[in-house]
Amino acid sequence: MKILNLGCGSKTCPHSDVVNIDWSVLLRIRKNPVLRSLAPLLLNGERLQRFRALPDNILVRNLAFGIPFGDASVDVVYHSHVLEHLDREVAGKFLVECWRVLRPEGIVRVVVPDFERYCRDYLKHVELCERLGAPAIAEHDRYFEPLLLQSVRREAFGTSQQRPLRRTLENLLLGDARRRGETHQWMYDRFNLTALLTASGFANVQILSFDTSRIPGWDRYGLDRNPDGTEYKPESLYVEAVKP
Question: d(Cα 174, Cα 170) in Å, to the nearest integer?
Fold first, then answer.
């Protein structure tokens, strides 16, 4: 088995079957000897701790230039909470690239925020507001956050927590949240994600859960679980499809 864990962030898998790939700012700093030596000056607090805790088993590659593997060379392509950060026209091309590197009968497993679930939660709270009035309305804005916050946020969260001088410098050097790839460019439910996978050449699309998969031995990789066995990314949609 060869499994690609694309856009892995800090959720890596140490198993020899898995290749973890990411392009985060922290990884790029670590890859550059000069920047690595300056890390204590560039980073502080929790971000410096995360930098020092980065695992060594991450391949640092910019997936905007393609997946760095040959045609029909891997068995599984997995990515979690990556697709929604891509522009709509880019997302289809990215899935075609996933199709390219998969062997025939290989599986792509896509995990994204479940837009349908967010909408259902929002509508339930609308009904609660109608019944209870002011007490429920006071909490109503937080039901907009899963739908909108990641799409409209302009400043990267980590930068917004910094002191004024560092905050200004980071925004000048690194750009806003969109430039850093932190914002959501589109959202998916079981219908439009199935359609996108089908249009990208995949077949036999199935909606699954965090603890079910057609990938042999998927549980042992722990990519959709916390160490205690609970769901790593609650409120997610889990979809698998096969390369014919």
Answer: 6
15-42: pLDDT as tens digits: 999 999 998 878 878 888 887 787 777 7
Estimate to the nearest angstrom the gap between the alpha carbon of 117 and the chain centroid. Answer: 17
* CA atoms within 13 Å, Cβ hemisphere of 178: 8
Token readout for 6 is: 């694309």
**pTM (two decimals):** 0.90
Q: How far apart are CA 222 and CA 140, in angstroms?
A: 35
Q: What is the DSSP letter of 174?
A: H
Beta strand 58-60 with 3-6 is: unpaired
Tell me how crowded residue 238 is: count the other CB atoms within 10 A of its CB.
22
Which domains, and CATH codes, for the chain?
3-23+61-114+188-242 (3.40.50.150)
Tokens of 204: 């036999």
Q: State how far the Cα of 117 lies from the Cα of 121, in Å rounded to an integer.
A: 6
Tens of pLDDT, residue by residue over 177-194, are 787 778 999 999 999 999
Q: Which helix (H) or strand (E) holds 96?
A: helix 88-101
